Amino acid sequence: MSKEFKTYSMDIAGKTLRVDIGRVAAQANGAAFMHYGDTTVLSTITASEKPRDGIDFFPLSVEYEEKMYAVGKIPGGFNKREGKASENAVLTSRVIDRPMRPLFPKDYRNDVTLNNLVTSVDPECRPELVAMLGSAIATAISDVPFCGPCAMTQVGMIDGEFIINPSQKQWDEGDLKLTVASTSTKVIMIEAGANEIPEDKMIEAIYKAHDVNLSIIEFINKMVEEVGKPKHDYVSCAIPEELFAAMKEIVTPAEMEVAVFTDEKQVREENIRQIREKFEEAFADNEEWLALIPEALYQYQKKTVRKMILKDRKRPDGRAINQIRPLAAEVDIIPRVHGSAMFTRGQTQICDIVTLAPLSEIQKIDGLDENVVSKRYMHHYNFPSYSVGETKVSRGPGRREIGHGALAERALLPVLPSVEEFPYAIRAVSETFESNGSTSMASTCASCMSLMAAGVPLKSMVAGISCGLVTGDTDDDYVVLTDIQGLEDFFGDMDFKVTGTYKGITAIQMDIKIHGLTRPIVEEAIARTREARLFIMDGVMSSAIPAPRTHVNEFAPKIVQIKIDPDKIGEVIGQRGKTINTIIEETGVKIDIDDDGNVSVCGVEQESMDKAMNMIKMIVEPLVVGDDYKGKVVKILDCGAIVSLAPNKDGLIHISKLSDKRVAKVEDVVNVGDDVVVKVIKIDERAGRISLSLKDVENK
Predict the structure, then answer these.
(1) Which parts of the sequence belong to the S1 motif domain (predicted)?
(2) Phi, psi of 224 (to 5 degrees)
(3) pLDDT class for 371, splitting at 50, 70, 90?
């Protein structure tokens, strides 16, 4: 007997979204089987019965599982099953996590897992969006405490026109990749990649998505009313007010303000360490309170910093609300690499190193998006523990590092030259030397300068900056902060990162810790970041390197490119690669050929590259009777000498054509291995014979 379940549907952007509730995964706290076009995703939420002991954060895990069967593929490699999450899966999980995390109760410590299983992919309906909506719906109808519902919408743009929830092709080829999450009243998350879109156009797109979200939230509310479970009770992990009162008697708010009011991170940390010792000594006999001191001290600092900023308009390091920390920029700080630059903003310092390579070094991608099979530009970000004065074993990049690298990569993609203009694979690596807030934006600035130093002809300079926020009790009681440092990020309500050129925005990533932003806050943050990034580009970046260098670094590989008839590709490659391998062995270069007939020759010495290029031209271009060509003697016959003009293109110099004088022996004039210049005197296409002359060459 089939299981009874409820189905709900609505139209979004001309396509039907269908949600099955109660059809599958009944043992999860909440489950939504999502259908959008032929894309299907199972979204579930589960929560532990009890809080996890000994933690001071909400343990939320978000998973986005890409199954290759969803696009009719068997995974590559020997194992033939899906391995660790792809970069796209990690980034999608982060986009789901960021808007939803603030909507769970702040004192909730139960383990919660949001899982999204992609089972089918329709290229017209992106599975990432379906998973975002599925997570929101599964959580809203579950018994897990949640201050929702929320909804997510994506916006693309082609020829200046917005497209709601674009197809994968429109998403990949358009000028905008925008994701917006909202509650019923406010925007709670923004993520964007853009092709230098003006600020006013971006704001228009954000609120177009917000309007769509409001209609989706109405749809979710209907499901909650009919099938939603009552939210379960939980053990609150809030700090007792009695503890706060006792702490204020030991260290007054004025003393705490003095402790945190400094622009030196190390000084502040030492001040807080001494205060913590006072509390530990005072509450040594109260084990319950002693265990709560770390979280209570954190909240005491947070209240102090927020009060200073919101009420007194004072920042911990003494800056004005719209003031950027001291800036410094320099290039070429690392010898022998292809490009390097360092960007410093206060106590945040990034060194970026660029490597150029042949196009054969591009990153191959095996994922659910069949339109994206490779990446030519790769940006990687590293965050070692020494950058914040800590000791921790490095275990490779985590989700945060992957996310920061992807943000800086997205920021620079719109200004990169085309493959035809610059036929290189490009990798930029941002090493965090020191961190005190917004290293991803410093990475963008450092990467831009490093690329220009490497001779990559960027279309425009790109810079990035982050704005923070402290809010009061009402919507109009707030302060937007330009260039937040770590303390203002930890204790504030927003991290609004924007990158762009002089012309417009290239990327946005907005995270908040509250239940949304009003439109005036969004508009002010976008305006502030534009003002700040122009100041950074004009102030320090242009002084360090005003424009891309006109040539690549001496240690970088040199690449020349030609286009050949695609029908000739087989002749260049030869049977089992024999021809192309012969060219590579003789010249020491690397050769890449794509299906369109683009041939790239990569080497260090120009002479070797020219030789390889001439050999390729000799293969694909017809010989002209009467023209002179370089060749090598490969065989001696009684009647003459065989000369190789190019792989698989040999000709005969008859003994009578070796010299103006009588020649008794061929070896009297040429020997095997000699480099010669010969004239083509006859081509017999039918017989495949080429007749050459040595004596008729002019200027011998």
Answers:
(1) 626-695
(2) -60, -40
(3) low
The share of the chain scoring above pLDDT 90, in percent, equals 65
Confidence label for 684 from pLDDT (cuts 50, 70 and 90)? confident
pLDDT of residue 1: 47
Alpha-carbon radius of gyration of the chain: 32
Across the strands, what pairs with 21?
A: 6
pLDDT in tens, 621-633: 888 888 888 889 9
| E-strand stretches of 435-493 | 463-471, 478-482
How far apart, in whole angstroms, are the C-alpha atoms of residue 154 and residue 220?
Answer: 18
Q: Which three-class secondary structure state does DSSP give residue 242?
A: helix
Give the integer Cα–Cα distance in Å for 672 and 464. Answer: 63
Long-range contacts of 528-531 (CB under 8 A, 24+ apart): 528/322, 528/467, 528/480, 528/482, 529/464, 529/465, 529/466, 529/467, 529/482, 529/496, 529/497, 529/498, 529/500, 530/199, 530/498, 530/500, 531/322, 531/482
Return the closest-CA partner of residue 181 out of 189, 173, 170, 171.
189
Amino acid at 677: V
Which is nearest to 20 in space by CA: 37, 4, 36, 32? Answer: 32
Residue 495 annotated as part of some ligand binding site: yes
- Quick: pLDDT tens for 275-292: 999 998 888 888 888 888
Sheet holding 598-603, edge to edge: 558-563, 598-603, 590-593
Residue 477 annotated as binding? no
Q: pTM of the full predicted structure?
A: 0.88
Question: Cα–chain-centroid distance for residue 441?
Answer: 13
- Which of 340 and 592 is assigned the larger pLDDT? 340
Count CB atoms within 10 A of the CB of residue 477: 11
Tell me which residue has tokens 């743009």.
157
Helix (H, G, I), strand (E, B) or coil at 474: coil
